Structure prediction request, 321 residues.
Amino acid sequence: MTSSSIQRLIGSSASGHDRAFASQLMEMLAIPVFVLDTDSRVMIWNRACERLTGVQAAEIVGTDQHWRTFYEQRQPTLADLVLQNRLDDIPHACHDAVHGNLSAESWCDMPRLGRRRYLAADASPIFDERGTMSAVVETLRDQTDEKLAQIALQQLATRDGLTGLANRRCFDETLHAEWARALRQKQPLSLLMVDVDNFKAYNDANGHLGGDECLKRIATAVASEMRVNDLVARYGGEEFAVILPNQSLKGAAAVAERIRCRVERMQVPHRLAPTQHVTVSIGAATAIAGPDNDASQLIAIADAALYRAKHLGRNRISLPV
Prediction:
């Protein structure tokens, strides 16, 4: 039963018998339901709502503290927004302009339970015989399991299965978005291309399982040097790409050198390498986004710098000439 169905049952046009039946029905519904009066005080808080929130009706009915059952800090529920005629205040909410109904989904803190839940809510006004709003009914659906499954699927679509880093698809999308942001904000955008030196020889000597383990260790080393807004992706094979928003070439070179040193300190044995351990070569590039260039040019410049680092002897960083 939706909130609009309940609205029809307990509206002023319904008989006293229907309203009593609706109140009893709401109490017994498996769907969490609560009703607010025009002062945002709780009139009804059914048993399913008690189970969902961990808050008993006796604690909440007659108060305007219902928000505490969903949030750590005060903010309106959908029912409150309907009462206050703030139907456009929630992004991505579905709004029925004719009937004033509002639907939305969001994460809620659920302080009493001590764990966040992803709730889908519908809120509908109840009108008296003069057409004046007299109350608002809100129904809730716990969709946490479905949301977590959706997030897991999205991560599978954007994560590299071996290293857990972003995959090539995620890299391409992020670089496009960061380029657009750099263009708007007139900020520099830097890119590192990181390649494991002599990896084919390592793979031949240690087998694919050994090669996979090496790549996972390199991925961890690269990711450990990142800021919150940076992105590390497995670009392909033994190559990694690092997007550094609002980072100068000097700053990008410093990050690249830290990555190179960290990998070197790992001392992963590689008897066929000149250093006798695994190393990386890194090409760095920086661009100021503009109408006359694009992100593909940034990749090309970083790739050329990487090739130069390889040509000069590996285990080094190279900047554009």
About this structure: The mean pLDDT is 90. The CA atoms of residues 98 and 129 lie 18 Å apart. The first strand starts at residue 33 and ends at 37. Residues 199-223 form the longest helix (25 residues).
